[in-house]
Amino acid sequence: MPIRPCTDKDFDVIFEIINDAARAYQGHIPSDRWKEPYMSRQELSHEISAGVRFWACEEDGVVLGVMGIQDVRDVTLIRHAYVRTALRNKGVGSKLLAFLMAQTDRPVLIGTWKDAAWAVRFYEKHGFRCVPEEEKNMLLRTYWNIPARQIETSVVLRQTTAHR
């Protein structure tokens, strides 16, 4: 399963995978934060313009999952990590995360929904831990550009083990 940087040609597949995989959030995240599609084309364009660099894990020319990385100030954020629903729990997300972790020497932060327990467990399995609430609020305001309601309903995980 090779990993490669996404290009402009991958926009539609990134959009498709994010919105397919994000269906797992429906009924778990606050209903006022859920929408269809979960991420619009305009929002995806904005994220890319803001510096999120997407990487794809593929097999036989088919993109299995995508994950973004974004340097913000003095940290690296892992952003928009999604694997096709039908291919979850087959190592795609782990492979992407390990690859992206090897791309930076900066501290790495990950934000996700508090009630997406499976996502929190995934990151914990890979050496990340949730930061305390007060620190989470400060980190989300400093490194992300998200609404107050999303800050209330999210967690931030910080890497606790060496990644190199």
What does the secondary structure layout of this molecule look like, with pairings?
Layout: E1 3-5, H1 11-21, H2 41-49, E2 53-59, E3 62-72, E4 75-83, H3 92-101, E5 108-113, H4 117-125, E6 128-130, H5 133-143, H6 148-152, E7 154-159
Parallel strand pairs: 4-5
Antiparallel strand pairs: 1-2, 2-3, 3-4, 5-7, 6-7
Notes on the structure:
With about 160 residues, the chain is an alpha+beta fold. It has helices at about 10-20, 40-50, 90-100, 115-125, 135-145, 150; strands at about 5, 55-60, 60-70, 75-85, 110-115, 130, 155-160. The chain is built from 6 helices and 7 strands. A 7-stranded mixed β-sheet has the order 1-2-3-4-5-7-6, sandwiched between helices. The longest helix has 11 residues, at about 10-20. The chain is globular, with a radius of gyration of 15 Å. The two termini are about 20 Å apart. The mean pLDDT is about 95.
What's the CATH class label?
Alpha Beta
What would CATH call the homologous superfamily? Gcn5-related N-acetyltransferase (GNAT)
C-alpha geometry: globular
User: Helix/strand-derived class?
Assistant: alpha+beta
Give a count of the beta strands, DSSP E runs of length 2 or more. Answer: 7
Low-confidence regions: none
Mean pLDDT: 95
Number of helices: 6
The major sheet is characterized as: 7 strands, mixed
Strand content: 25-35%
The CATH architecture can be given as 3-Layer(aba) Sandwich
Find the CATH topology.
Answer: Aminopeptidase
Q: What's the helical proportion of residues? A: 25-40%
**Distance between the ends:** 21 Å
Tally the structural domains.
1
Largest sheet: spatial strand order = 1-2-3-4-5-7-6
Which radius of gyration do the C-alpha atoms yield?
15 Å
Could you spell the SSE succession in H and E letters?
A: EHHEEEHEHEHHE
